[in-house]
Amino acid sequence: MAKKDMDMMDHPPIWRIDGKSLLQKFQAFEKDGKTLYRNISTYSGWTSQAKALYVGVKVTFVFQSRYDTVVEMVGIKNQEEDESSNDKPEEVVWVSKNQQQDYEISEELRSHMPDFEIYLQTLISQALDNNFLKEIYEENDDYFVERVKIIDELAEERKRKILEIVQWNDKFRNSLDTWPCINVMITKNADMCQACSNQPATKLSQLYGQPYNQETLRSREPMPSEVDTKNYEVCDRCSNLSQMYNKVSHQKYDYYSQCKSTVTNTRVTHPSKHTTTILRDLLANDHWIMGLFRSMCTTWIKVDRLYQEELNVKNDGAEAEASKEESSEATETAT
């Protein structure tokens, strides 16, 4: 499991080493109240340098065939272990997946649960009908459009907070807004960070995916100026913050993709089920909806905390500088 995903997602994907140089992705899905993982045809590079970006997970097999594998994650490797040790597998310390840090959702965020339910209904409807978002914006359907705007604005607020504490150039920020996915690898290049130009680069951020219309979520072809702006060598700080920014920026698209995947799975397993029945059944799945809502709020809370921490550090520095100046002036007066 990628360490960056652990801090940003409730059910991050896991990866299986495939051969000597590839990782195969396992995507999370819900079944009978459990979170399971199914292999998909997405791969990433695997090198000895990339090992530091991941943490081991323990799984049990639920189903396996020639082409499909479904597993359940039961533990996460203790990250405080010495990675260079030669401990036997049975001596590895596994932490239960349920011991992950929980974030208390404030009353203010909880008040947006009704808005989120309609927001999610909108995304499910878009997954069922690719013209749905286009039509509600053309018709200015307040019931859906206003709720979508409310959730979008909450995400925009978090984007603004991140942008307040970084010094990214426009090219890097625009790339983050354009490409919905990001992959990070370690780089040994000693050049300066291509995002802030303040620190040496330590990571290679690879942006990818399909550009899309922010309003209708329909895929679009990348513009010529966007095609060559996908790889950036960045410092640790910009790497961490850009991953968080990318997640918030593409929040709606990510949730739409999850809805689309759920709808597709339902249509495959129940081909005769009518569209309205699929919509009704998904909206009746309180466990699924609450999980998505908590995941969204958790991301926002992490941004809020990070923003406040940055402000505290900045204020402490300003106070220390002011105290230093006062002390210097007092010394000069005494002299």
Task: Give an account of the 3D structure.
The chain is 47% helix and 19% strand. The protein is of the alpha+beta class and 335 residues long. The strands form 2 sheets. Strands 1, 2, 3, 4, 5 and 6 form a 6-stranded antiparallel β-sheet that branches. Strands 7-8-9 form a 3-stranded antiparallel β-sheet, with helices on one face. Helix 3 crosses helix 9 and helix 5 (142-164) runs parallel beside helix 11 (286-334). The longest helix is centred in the C-terminal third of the chain and has 49 residues, at 286-334. It is globular and about 90 Å long. The termini are far apart.
List its salient traits:
single chain; 335 residues; alpha+beta; 6-stranded antiparallel sheet; 9 strands; 47% helix; DUF4211; DUF4211 domain-containing protein
List the helices and strands and how they pair.
Layout: H1 3-6, E1 14-18, E2 22-31, E3 34-45, E4 57-64, E5 69-77, E6 94-95, H2 107-110, H3 113-128, H4 132-138, H5 142-164, H6 170-178, E7 181-186, E8 203-208, H7 224-227, E9 231-234, H8 236-249, H9 251-269, H10 275-283, H11 286-334
Antiparallel strand pairs: 1-2, 2-3, 3-5, 4-5, 5-6, 7-8, 8-9
Helix pairs in contact: 3-5, 3-9, 3-10, 5-8, 5-11
